[in-house]
Amino acid sequence: MFSSVELSRIELPLQKKFGHNLAQHSKTDNLILSINDKTFYGYGEAVPRQYVTKETSQHIFDNFANSKLIQILKEFNCTSLMEGVNNLFTLRLNDIESKNYVGPGLSCLLELAILDFLGKKYGTQISGILNKSFPFLKKGKNMNSFPFTTVLSYSDSLDRLSAKKINGVKVKVGKDIDFDVDNLRNIKKIVGDNVPVFIDGNCCWKYDDGVRFAKKTQDMDIKWFEEPLSTSDFKELFAFKQETKVKIMLDENCVSMQDLIRAHKENSFDYINLRISKNGGVSQFLEMYDYIVKNGYKAQLGVQVGEVGPLWACGRQIMQSGIDVVSYEAGQIDLLLKEYNLLDKYMIDREVNRAFPIKDNGLGLKGIEYFVENNKRDNIKIFL
Fold first, then answer.
1. d(C-alpha 135, C-alpha 290), whole Å
2. Which residues does 325 contact at the CB level (< 8 Å), separation at least 6?
3. 0.90 cut: is pTM over it?
4. For residues 245 and 164, what is the distance between their CA atoms, to the nearest angstrom?
5. Which of 17, 32, 311, 331 has its CA 20 to 30 A from that of 364?
6. CA of 330: how far to CAs of 48, 50, 345, 368, in Å?
7. Which of 15, 49, 13 shows the shortest CA–CA distance to 303?
């Protein structure tokens, strides 16, 4: 079915560093997978983070030619849209108990690429494919735009809060407790009481420091603390919740369905930050979302720093499919890159912080092939 597959590495310098407790990003670090049957092309993307999934772009790239993914692509076939989708999702590429397990990075790359390919081949958007494949999605939900969250790193100016409409503010913390507290007070003064503010510690504090921060901010109505503690112990997170009375969002500590189930058993969270690349693609992302909702929790649709195309477009398609989230991060590649030649397709309005639906088939990214060709640092092409 497929003629060839190509894996490209993309590293583009950022206009400004984006930092948090676990990393300082000065460039993008992306993998782009392209598959084709000589007529239609599909593109997938992953942004591996060693401190999240124990994977790196270099390791995935170096081992790509000998990975299970090549044989999977050689054997993949379908005669209709939904047969192709079902064949893809039954592979269980990111299920550690599956014979086809390839890890979250390769799983994400392949799922997005095949879905993009199938959408283009059969003339439909990925959002429509997801509606047919996951019945718990709110079919028929039609929004003209989606409010997204403003994310502030250590280096961001508060001038970004001067937009006409701010829907919510996520603030990176962990640099210094007193600095963080003062910064939050300034932010609250700017946005007022009607705009939700929440913090992301990226696993920054020891238990006692986290408690101290919570006490210093208890009058600020911080909606939730995302990964406040430098621990992977869900019992410790539960104790922190009980002592401070704050709401907890998990991210780095909740990569897989197995993580989610363990965290639920320990009652260690209120929200989960789901990210397509971290969670290994669309299927596990949505399975985790379904589990979250069924058990009375809520989710955020988050992003990795520096998503250059297929990932942010897939996030938009998931929003179009009708999921209900407490916060949507649309990405900020337009702010991070000096030149971004897919910007006209980015479909956002930063004056009101809203993202707009993508209209084209598949992921809907016209021009992605030129972007990859012009920006790839290394590539491996294999004929199937």
1. 10
2. 298, 299, 300, 301, 319
3. yes
4. 33
5. 17
6. 18, 23, 13, 18
7. 49
Residue 39, number of CB atoms within 10 A of its CB? 8
pLDDT tens track for 341-361: 665 667 899 999 999 999 899
How many Cα atoms sit within 13 Å of 239 on the Cβ side? 12
140: left (phi over 0), alpha (psi -120 to 50) or beta: left
**Confidence band (pLDDT; 50, 70, 90) for 23?**
confident
Residues 6+ apart with CB under 8 A from 190: 158, 161
Report residue 139's pLDDT band, with 50, 70 and 90 as the boundaries.
Answer: low
Note the residue count of the chain: 384
Pairing of strands 348-349, 4-10: unpaired
pLDDT band at 26 (very low <50, low <70, confident <90, very high): confident
Q: What is the DSSP letter of 144?
A: S
Look up residue 199 and give its two tokens. 């913090």
Q: How far is residue 210's CA from residue 202's CA, in Å, rounded to a whole number?
A: 12
- Strand ranges (E), the chain: 4-10, 13-20, 23-27, 30-36, 41-46, 146-147, 150-152, 169-172, 197-200, 222-226, 248-250, 271-274, 298-301, 327-328, 348-349, 354-355, 376-383
Q: Measured on CA atoms in the order 349, 350, 351, 353, is the torsion positive or negative?
A: positive
Supply 206's token pair. 């020891």
Nearest to 15 by CA among 1, 2, 28, 6: 28
Mean pLDDT for all residues in the chain: 93
Q: Which residues contact 306 (CB under 8 A, 6 or more apart)?
A: 12, 14, 18, 25, 27, 28, 29, 30, 47, 333, 336
The Cα-based distances of 302 to 186, 251, 372 in angstroms read: 25, 9, 23
Cα separation, 67 vs 278, whole angstroms: 19
Closest CA to 273 of 315, 332, 211, 306: 315
Asked whether 235 and 266 are in contact (CB, 8 A), the reply is: yes
